[in-house]
Amino acid sequence: MKNYENMIDINGRIKLSYIKKGQGKKIIILHGNRDSKTNFDRLIDDLAEYYMVFAIDLRGHGKSDKPKSGYQFEEFVEDIKEFIEVLKIEECSIIGHSLGASIAIQLALADGGSKIKNLVLMGTSAKFVPFFRIDMIKKENIKNTDLSSENIQNIIKNALRPYFILERYKNIEPIVFSNWSNMLPVIHQALVMQLKHPDLTGVLKGIKQRTLVIAGSEDKVTPVDSCRKVYNLIPNAEIEIIEGCGHFMYLEEEKVVFKVIKDFL
Prior knowledge:
Elements (H helix, E strand, L loop, with lengths): L4 E5 L5 E7 L4 E5 L10 H7 L4 E5 L16 H14 L5 E6 L1 H13 L4 E7 L8 H10 L8 H16 L8 H10 L2 H10 L15 E7 L7 H10 L3 E6 L6 H4 L1 H11 L1
Parallel strand pairs: 3-4, 3-5, 5-6, 6-7, 7-8
Antiparallel strand pairs: 1-2, 2-4
Helix pairs in contact: 1-10, 2-3, 4-5, 5-6
């Protein structure tokens, strides 16, 4: 079986793991916070029938390098910007989910439509506020900075599941939470303390690329209203609401999401 896994040194700043699969126009896929490229395995397979797909593990995630610091939002953006440059990708579309969508937005703004031609933003928000973290502290008496391995398991079991996993799609739970469970406590700690989501409200009107916003109608992390706000602020945008789905709509109804993306691109 062919191995599609690769590792690339990004100008000495970080080594990123990525999957490259398929032929044709290029698509870059960016996962969310504490997820990995393997979340997209099925979507990668379907897209690779029509496109050349690059699915990347962000720094600190999956098989990419895991430094103890350097998890500011700007570092994630710069990694992908340089990834595109190092691989000499002259034209592409970017699919981003959650944190990956925010990274895609910043990349698109900086690019101005030169290399990045289309955006697909899944589970996105102009100003992401992790309100579930506040609830988690109240209900479970868990401190943000107390991220030992045992406490991570308690957080997943008692606080995060209701927001990220819908009962009708509980089969995706092992995929979603395996990444969280396997992440080193020091990386959890760094992400909590260093990663601050930017307020994109005032800059979204500057996006020149064609944009598709995909929302899950039952998403409790980035609710439909937050996705609709992004759609309303981007000049050349479309929106697709996947009924009955939550934050991980691309796992819950992969074939539906794949068709929506392919029809858009």
